[in-house]
Write a structure and sequence with these properties.
alpha/beta, 266 residues, 3-stranded antiparallel sheet
């Protein structure tokens, strides 16, 4: 049960209350806060196909079965600030939108927008929120991977992917690590991010070759090891990648890299 409730009226033409209970980060989660958003179900249905299904009066979801005089819906595990932004956009309260956002806040907003399929609503303001953040130095580019994927920024997605390829290491269990942190612990990642992972696999291969002293490629006249020794070192290389979110495979059977990942000394 929440320790206190805050009510925010999104519109005066309301017929629905959205209940959101979350842990207050300023108290390390010790205080539960409940926010009630007074909204229009019609506006929400128009804004999101997910909300349309949830709140369709003719639908079979529990949220759509509440009585007309006391309709309420519980939203769990959603970021409060991000949900309020989406609701204000859905109800055309554009004057209430923030002028700027933090990188963490932008990630939360992308997560909830992807969840409710409302990304298109963000496009008029996404540039305004993103541009100031691009100039900030960030030690971890991983958040931009999910942001650029969500907002369809292909150029930035490629740039971040290449940056990660250059800075990650592959652990013995096949998981990708960057500066002591596993990638899946750095924040949300695009689903199926490794389905087209030739670039990351190539980076893994090059690092493996470097560890085995085969990269840069040595001059043949400088190699004195027996062929069997070279073959053994190549076979000991590990080139698998597994992020842990959205993928449970550490091999590259779905990639063009598979045939090249088994060194031979024929």
């Amino acid at each position: 049960m929440a320790d206190f409730t805050d009510t925010i009226r999104i519109t005066s033409q309301s017929d629905l209350t959205v209940h959101l209970t979350y842990a207050d980060t300023e108290t390390n989660g010790n205080v539960k806060v409940k926010k009630d958003f007074i909204v229009s179900s019609a506006a929400m249905r128009l804004a999101s196909p997910v909300w349309h299904t949830m709140l369709d009066p003719k639908g079979h979801f529990m949220e759509s079965q509440s009585s007309a005089t006391n309709r309420g819906v519980d939203f769990k595990d959603d970021d409060c600030t991000s949900l309020e932004i989406l609701l204000n956009i859905a109800h055309m309260n554009y004057h209430l939108l923030p002028d700027s956002m933090t990188l963490e806040g932008l990630v939360h907003l992308c997560v909830i927008s992807d969840k409710y399929d409302t990304v298109r609503m963000l496009r008029p303001w996404s540039g305004k929120w993103i541009d100031p953040l691009k100039s900030e130095d960030s030690e971890d580019p991983t958040p931009w991977l999910f942001i650029s994927w969500t907002l369809g920024d292909q150029a930035r997605y490629r740039a971040v992917s290449l940056q990660l390829v250059k800075t990650i290491s592959i652990e013995t269990d096949g998981r990708a690590m960057r500066r002591g942190v596993f990638l899946e612990q750095s924040g949300p990642l695009p689903p199926g991010a490794l389905k087209n992972c030739d670039a990351m696999a190539l980076g893994s291969l090059l690092r493996g070759l470097k560890v085995a002293s085969f990269w840069p490629i040595p001059n043949a006249s400088n190699v004195s090891s027996p062929i069997e020794s070279i073959e053994a070192r190549l076979k000991d290389m590990r080139c698998g990648i597994k992020l842990g979110r959205g993928s449970t495979k550490s091999s590259h059977r779905a990639c063009g890299f598979q045939a090249a990942s088994t060194p031979r000394a024929d």
